[in-house]
Give the backbone structure.
Amino acid sequence: MGPNVTETVISCRSVSKIFGPDPVGHLARLKADPQTSSVGYVQAVRDVDLDIQRGEMLVVMGLSGSGKSTLVRCLSRLIEITGGSVTIEGQDIASLSETALIDLRRRKMGMVFQSFGLLPHRTVLDNVAFPLEMRGQDRSTRYARAREMLDLVGLKGREGYFPRELSGGQQQRVGIARSLAIEPDIWFLDEPFSALDPLIRREMQDEFLRLKGLLNKTIIFITHDFDEALRLADRIAIMKDGRIEQCDTPDQIVLHPATEYVAKFTAEIDRARVVRAGSLARPLAAVPEGDATAATLTIRDLARHLVADRRAVIPVADAEGKIIGGMDRQEALDVLLGDAK
Amino acid sequence: MTRPAARSSGMAGLLLALALFLAFGKLLLPEGLIRPPEWLVQPFADWINAAFYFLQNDLGLMALTRAFSDVVEWLLDVTANLLYGKSRWPDIGPIPWIVVAATAFMAGYALKGWRLAALSGGTFVWIALMGQWKWAMETLSVIVVAAPFSVFLGLVMGVLAWRSPRFERILNPILNIAQSLPHFAYMIPVVVFIGVGPKAGAIVTIIFSVPPMIRMTLLGLKRVPEEVIEAGKMAGSTRWQLLSRVRIPTARPEILIGVNQVIMQCLAMVVLASFIGMPGLGQKLLQLLQALKIGLSVEIGVTIVLLAVTLDRLSKAWALRLPEHDEPSARWLHRNRLLVIWLSLCIAGLVLAQFVPYLHEVERKQALSVAGPIDAAMDQVIRVIAPVTAWLRWFLITWVLIPMRDAYLWLPFTAVLALLAAVGWAIGGLRSALICLGYFGLIALSGWWDRAMITVYMVNISVLIAALIGLPLGIWAARNPPRAARILLICDTAQTFPSFIYLIPVIMLFGVNDVAVVAAVVVFAAVPIVRYTIEGLSNVPPELIEAAEMSGATRRQTLWHVRLPMALPTMLVGANQSVMFSLFMVIIAAFIGTQDLGQEMQRALSSTDVGKGLVLGFAVAVMGLMTDHLITRWSEDRKRALGF
Amino acid sequence: MKSARSMFASAAVLALLAPTAWAEDSTDPIIIPLHNWSSQIVMSHVVGDVLKSKGNAVEYVTTDSQAVYESVRLGDVSLELEVWEGAFGASFDAAVAKGGIHAAGAHNAVTREDWWYPMWTKEACPGLPDWKALNDCAALFATPETGEKGRFLGGPVDWLKHDAEKVDALGLNFAVVNAGSAAAIWAELGAAEKTKTPIVVFNWTPNFAEAVWPGEFVEFPKWEAGCNEDPAVGMFPDKTYDCGNPATGYLKIAAWDGMKDKWPAAYATISKVSLTNAQIAEMAKLVDIDGMEPEDAAKSWMDANPDVWNAWLN
């Protein structure tokens, strides 16, 4: 998988965010002497380097307090960063004037919030139309667009309701519709499903995948739920104490954790559901006989096949059917049975 | 936030010892340590008067205030015309009472349903049938101008305070003082700058009712969830859009509670503002009391209570009302059915009133009255309990009040200051000790020490008696919820009932003396104690009580060891309010006859002495502020200790 | 009410026909202050109705009876119909000294204010009204707060009645307790009436209280000029205040200085207003005893006394 076009949309260079009485000074002191005491300061984001490609879905994950929500707010300049730079489509957003920033948000960005962030005094329709209203669009155009969005998230017929009259899942659908109303290129989702019941969460994830398929957007998705990350991500960035511990594709993270912390994190994961045939494929001297399996399938998908197929090495083919390598059956079985490494 | 308890209690002990030394060594003390020496007393009043003179004449502020009051007056004329037919533009009033009553009825129905409709419609029917229509409309004509002004001013100031933390820091102490200044202190500058009459009444009402609106606006704006604001920002709102379409609408519940408080404050001023010319119910009430017509004054008191309850419920219902959607298929007529019904009722009322004058205006001659029975009952009560009150009067005067008052006056002022510093230190360390010293030091500097001590003595004894009555009553009432609800209703009524009405019966029962004053004050002082005792006890977590019961505690043990300690922080809030109410009421009780700050305040009002009035007002305010500081501090410590 | 209205109409026609200067009156309303006792309110409405009948615009405003002189002085209020020598003389004089207010006329009434008792007190202490009887009956008036001494309930301290000095000068075995308001005095009287308790209070005439509670003033040594200032004058050679209050105080009408120019005709009328004790008491009675509204009482009084107010118009 992974994006086909490699155009960087968002680029972070040693981004830091410190909360406290004199953040800039404190950052300078830390640079000079890393041992400086940080009493009274919170280093929410430390030295983050990150590039996000167009059309990519990056999941930022970490426990609460790891700085993931702060990081995403730095990307949209909801929070001013202390050090480093954030560039969006080649433009350093810290240098934007207030008007330019507002314009950028009006044209390019949408965001979904954990507790929905709906305006309690507005109807569902007015909530979805809100960003368009801010842009100064006339009433009939923005209502038409808002209705379209509500259709898209399956809330047709609820236009006149007020947020508190809806269930949590429905409220989040409104939040999603609102964030999509201006057709943003960049879509931020801050733990959008954390406040929902497990059953609804699952349903919303499916819904989200459907939308994602419909719309080709750059997506930054925050979650503390590793399963959710694995389900949705192209790439996952794992954060701890404000730093990115590892940023890679899900199967790379599972197979080759970069740090102890990531390893611990991934220990309980059922690898078979994450690891895909492609990532186990090694270059082949000679292509074995018989059918090749698709690189995109997970080992769990291939479970039956693995048990039945007696070949030591199973060829793996990409989407076009070209053989990209061979997968060691024993290794794949180890992944499936959960006793690899 | 923890303080070194051992050291502070040591220091407090030392200060206490100093206080005792000063008190018992009084005979040995030089005169200057017993009463503030002449050179120490500062002519605050002259300074204030000079400042006001400067503002009034040299700065020409007078022109500005008068211009503002002209605007207010124009608005007052419009409402006065509409509501009671004062001959002013637009010259179409008065609106027949039946139309106003129908409007109130519909407003109640729209906001909450039949019960509120019956209450608000019924209130206006009562007013009309009791022949109080014109007076009530005179009152309302001022309130409907003053309240929106207050709301607007409060909103603007609240937003400014929210925008600029520096402004908030300046505003906060001003609001604190403003809310502890006795009402009369406000009125004197208003008379100077605005004059007398409805506009002065309206303006003093505005000044008095604005602080809670500012506070609630600020609170509301601070409480808007961060995510809602972020959502607004991400939608590309400019700052103004963010404020006007995101923050303020989202803060609506708090802001509407502010509106509710503004309305209640306006009603609290109805009687007092009539001292400077506010027409209507308050003025009539004072006239009737002057002529000892208790029954008729009680009728007016009931009207004021009914109006207060109605406006309170209506505005609360409005504040708490959650928006509900209409079915998209609904027609215009269906969606606006209440509007249509209201309009048709109004038209029907207008037409009917043309043919039936009774529905237009109930003349005084046609009015119903319950004054006769009330007077007779009052008469009977006084006759029956006269022996009891005579004994009570003798007992309290001889054995409690006079000794206590003499003791307060006997104490050297230095001993009082040392004692307060000791209390301050014990509760909040050095800072609180300095606050206590500073506040009461100011009173000593003002030269009103003796009178201030009399005020302190009356407030102390009143709060004490109020606690003796209020605590058991609250504990008893908290035992079952329906009973608690009934007692709370009585509390609300007692508190909303115009305070002046209490003055006459207490004089009839006890005569002009301190017993009457204390009795009148206790009525007000007991209300918050009862209310917060009930609230504190009812909010003790049930698991705690169950745990105590499972440990085999008796009901009494549960009360003493679990419920009361848990309820204490809340009860302290009640004690705090009780002191505030007592301070206000002691000042008003000057109309019975006292020798304290209130009496001087009354004199300052009648001689329009701004400086003196404000100095006395500040003296009362600092008493309130000091109590507030100490009790809040203590209750917060208790809360922290209980892990709230 | 109808008849009163038509009467005003005819009066207004007369006013228009009369060849005088009052057409120059400003159309701004004349502001008449109302206080918290009924004779003043009724009288204000009577005068207001008379002025209205002449075509003036009139408005009423309720004010404090002491603070009103400052308001008249500034022109916020146009006039004041009851300036009592005893109660308001000091405030009035102070305002006159500052400028802007003057006496525009006087009522043909005397005011008196002094120690007073209701009739049931006399039954218990038959020596009254002679002041010497007070000492004999002092025990009758004793209360817990005054101990052995009798209790005299005075008016508010700021009325400056020098009761304590009088007690000292005349050697009365009494303690003075000051009420905080007139209403407080009436409340005590009302309560005392129910149990017929003997009581001595500060009171004045003309006043509605006379109609509610019949009573008499205590007869102190007669007032003579200087007895309050000069120890030699009066009963005791070494005491000031060794006499009663003057039994014949003035009752004046005060007006704003600007009134003469702004409303000359109205000013001419109010300077002619003059009422007697009996007429004032009648006005108070209509409200306090008959229970009429002040507006209705004014109309009813005018219907009954057309000659009196017609005389003010010429």
